[in-house]
Amino acid sequence: MKLTLLRHGETIANRDKLVLGRSNVPLTTVGVAQAIKAAEKVSQLPIAAIYCSPFQRAIQTASYATHKTGIPSIVLQGLREMDSGEMEGMKMDAMQIKYPEYLKQWGLDPSNTRPPGGDTMAEVHQRAWNSILDISKSHTNEHVLAVTHLFPIQGILCKISKMHSNNYEQFKVELGSLTTVLIESDNNSIIKFNETSHLNIV
Predict the structure, then answer these.
(1) Buried b (16+ CB within 10 A) or exposed e, 96-133
(2) Cα distance between residue 84 and residue 102, in whole Å
(3) Quick check: pTM over 0.85?
(4) CATH code assigned at 72
(5) Labelling 180: which of 120, 133, 144, 199 has CA 20 to 30 A away?
(6) Active-site residue (options: 10, 67, 81, 125)
């Protein structure tokens, strides 16, 4: 299966650098423009199915791909972003004041550090990878689009690259970007990474 991963467009939380996990926030006007341009690029691909995270920003982004391709999106819980628990909606300076021990531990082992009331990054990465493997069973030799978030995409790339989740920052994934990978029974590979050329088209 060939899989194109689309990171959702910009939201207010992304713009204002707030922790964004489970919150259902819509796209900004910039985010809508990113989603439309990504959809135009996706419409040039032989997409057979579209899957998306259950959060509003991903569903909204996927809707533009559906409009361009005529393919309805299927919501998949495993593609959802990390639940940041009590830190949801906070800025980094506020987190440093309220949760210094958490941030210290995150710096040492981000994969297994759990925010109060939330997910660990390892859990996010594993459920995203499990979802992709499940999708691949239904779409042998097909090209699939998955609209999701930063941490799930980074987790999928870590799994493909056989890298520990703590190395997630090696993959810079921009809002509205497209990353294409190949999922095979005996070999997985990254074909295109963080493609953003479509976002620069006026």
Answers:
(1) eeebeebeeebeeebbebbbeebbbbbbbbebbbebbe
(2) 12
(3) yes
(4) 3.40.50.1240
(5) 120
(6) 81
Encoding tokens for residue 182? 């190949």
Q: Is 143 a catalytic residue?
A: no
pLDDT, tens only, 173-186: 999 999 999 999 88
Tens of pLDDT, residues 101-148: 999 999 999 999 999 999 999 999 999 999 999 999 999 999 999 999
What's the domain count of the chain? 1
pLDDT tens digits along 62-86: 999 999 999 999 999 999 999 999 9
195 is catalytic: no
Location of structure tokens 């029974």: 185
Question: Structural domain of residue 43, as residue ranges?
Answer: 2-200
> Per-residue pLDDT averaged across 7-27, rounded?
95
